[in-house]
Amino acid sequence: MNTLDGVRAVYAKEMLGYFRSPIAYFVIAVFLLGTGYFFTYNIFLTGIGTMDSTLQNMGILLLIISPVLTMRLFSAEYNARTMELLMTLPLQTWQVVLGKYFGAVSIFLLMTAATWINLVPLYLFGTPQTLNIISGYLGFILLGMACIAIGQLFSALTENQIVAALITIPVLLGFWFVGHLQSLQSSLLLRDLVAHLSFALHFADFIRGLLRSEGITFFFAVIACALTLNTGYLQLRR
After folding, report:
1. How wide is the angle at C-alpha 160 spanned by C-alphas 24 and 30, nearest 5°?
2. Domain that holds residue 145
3. Comparing C-alpha atoms, which of 202, 198, 194 is closest to residue 140?
4. pTM of the model
5. Tally of CB atoms within 10 A around 88
6. Rounded distance, CA 91 to CA 73, Å?
7. What is the tally of structural domains in the chain?
8. What is the per-residue burial (b if ≥16 Cβ within 10 Å, else e) of 51-63?
C-alpha cells in the first residue's frame, strides 16, 4: 500500500465513523446555531455591518466545539479494542495520524462552509469589506486546524473520550487568553513571547485583514508540533 492509499483508507474510515454516529450532526448543529445567533445579534441587533464580531465569537465557540469533534479520534479506538488491529495493518503511524486528522478537518471545513449562508443578507443589506471577510475566514480555518491537531493529540493520550475533551478545552482556552498576560510581564522578551503564543491575537490580525506571515507560520507550527508529538507517542505504544 503506497503512502496516499494508506492515508485515504484511514480517512475514509473516519468519515464513515463520523456520519454513522450522532457526533458530526450534533457538532455541526450546535456550531451553526451558535454562529447564527452571533450573526443575528451582531448584525441586526447592534447594527454592525461587518463580520468582525461574528468571526471573533465563532473563534471562541470553536474552542468549545472542536474538542467534542476530536475526543473520539483515538480514545474510541482504545475503548473498542481496535487500536491494536489498526497498528498491525501495513500502515505507517504517521499515515494513521494524518488520515484521522484530515477526517476531522473535513468535518470542520463543512461546518465552516455552512456559515457562508450568513454572508447573503450581509451583502444584500450592507457593504462589507470582502478582503477582511476572506482574511478572517482564512484565519478561522487555520485556528480550527490548530485546535483539531491539539485535540487529536490529547485523544491519543487517554482512553476516555470525556477526559480527552476536558483536557483539550482548558489547553485551547489557555492558548486563547495567554495574550492577556502581556500586561503582567515586565520583560519585553516575555511580553513578545506571550503575544506570539496567543491564538486570539493572531486571529485578530486575520479578522482585521492583516495576512501576516508570522500568524500563518505560527498556526502551521502548532499543527506540525501537535501531529509530530501525536505520531511519536503512538510509535512508542506500537
Report:
1. 25
2. 3-237
3. 202
4. 0.92
5. 9
6. 17
7. 1
8. bbbbbbbbbbbbb
